[in-house]
Amino acid sequence: MTVLSVNVNKVAGLRNSRGGTRPDVVEAAHTCIAAGAQGITVHPRPDRRHITPRDVRDLAAAIEVEYNLEGNPYSPASPGYPGFVELLEEIKPTQATLVPDGDDQLTSDHGWDLEREGERLAPIIGQLKTAGCRVSLFMDPVPAQMTLARQVGADRVELYTEDYARAYGTTAQAQAYKRYRDSAAAAIDAGLEVNAGHDLNLDNLGTFLTIPGIVEVSIGHALISDALRYGLYETVRRYLAVMPAD
Prior knowledge:
Elements (H helix, E strand, L loop, with lengths): L2 E5 L1 H10 L6 H11 L3 E4 L10 H10 L3 E6 L12 H8 L3 E4 L15 H17 L3 E6 L3 H9 L4 E5 L1 H6 L5 H17 L3 E5 L7 H4 L5 E6 L1 H10 L1 H10 L5
Parallel strand pairs: 1-2, 1-8, 2-3, 3-4, 4-5, 5-6, 6-7, 7-8
């Protein structure tokens, strides 16, 4: 069975564009959970453009499903932001997804190069596992990198799926799909579990999940966009409907 974790960053972004408390991030998370989502994801950034540390804490107190915090482990403390690793150690979410994005990036756009970063990441991964977090690394679909992910101590990898999403419906789809299938297989062979996320949507998700062994998908932008048409509860139900039941 593949778990659906809904990323509610965009809900916070809409709230922050106006100020105040609406839409309410915790309320949105509860709606997703009531519709059947098995997890909630947030990606707090130092500039607090959407999810804030307060949101992270409020969600931790309010939800009982899997809680996944994404972010750059190198992000230090700054005014209003305790640092990503420090936030993880405070909250102790179910899963910490480490992403190599810069503080000024619009969105995540690449995975880790573990030949270059593995030695630096390994002690951070150990620190987070000691704190009780399952650790996932955001990775490009490169089969050779999967063994390295296991060697540095990761429990999972999250395959960055923008290349698949861009290729979907074009002549490049089959080749892109094969890269992800091969990468998932390499990760499983290395002893890792496999997550996936970025630009997965109602059109392309079902095909992607014919890849064996995907245990979790994290979906935010497309799902919240679809909610403008269908409503949040119904949208979550639609995503679950295209996901394999077992």
